Give the backbone structure.
Amino acid sequence: MTFTASLSLFFAALLLGALAAAIAGRGGRSLYALEGVMLTGGLTGVLLSHEPAGVSLLAAGGAGAAAALLWGLPLLRYRRNQVLAGIAFNGFAASGAMIAAQIIGGVSYTRKGYWLEIAGENVTVFLPVAMAALLIVWLLVHHTCFGLRLRLCGQSPAPERMGLRVRVVRGFGLLLAGFLGGIGGLSALLSLGGGWRMAWGVGGLGYAALALAWAGKYGPFRAFGLALLLTLLYGAAAWFGAPESVQTALPILAALILLAIAGRKRPAEERMEV
């Protein structure tokens, strides 16, 4: 896999993950389980990577959506601590992935079906998928009745008193967020040049994407810009021959720095821009 191809997969994974966190955040739920959601969707997708690309993408998205609902629905019903639930779910997903990989005798996958030929160049299918998701999320959140309801649920408790079914709206938001996160997880696993290792998970890209969504105040185009910035930093580190451990840790460290610069409060605790 070429250096450019690896970067495009990395960028698509970050962007899809950040968009997933942005959708959930607009509904008032920070997707702390994003790392586990991406890992669940990604592992499901790579296990079907020998099938047509569309099948593995839909499977990854479906598994991610199921994982997000598994994490989020009890919180919508019982209002438990989101942070602790997210940490527990991420650990459960990582352990489950290792057990599943051992049971099936290792994870073998291929990247051959995930490329398109555009203007004579091979482009990963995840790049147009991520750009289409960016446009769809922007239109959905800012130009539809569902998006208006979602933003109202994240900004004020008033919709519930007005008769809006807040749990249902947030549930659909989590469903869509998990779908995008699952596809992003598949892109993340395929971006690992040396092949997937069970101990890596998705390389911390779920945490980095969540931090990008926070730093960008859940704005889709802000998430795009920040994901592009982190991809350039990652590419520069790889280009100059930084150790593999540095390349792996760099996205998370850079995302934390961006988050610290963006402000002390989490976006869910502020009045977000419409």
Notes: The chain has a mean pLDDT of 82. DSSP finds eleven helices and two strands in the chain.
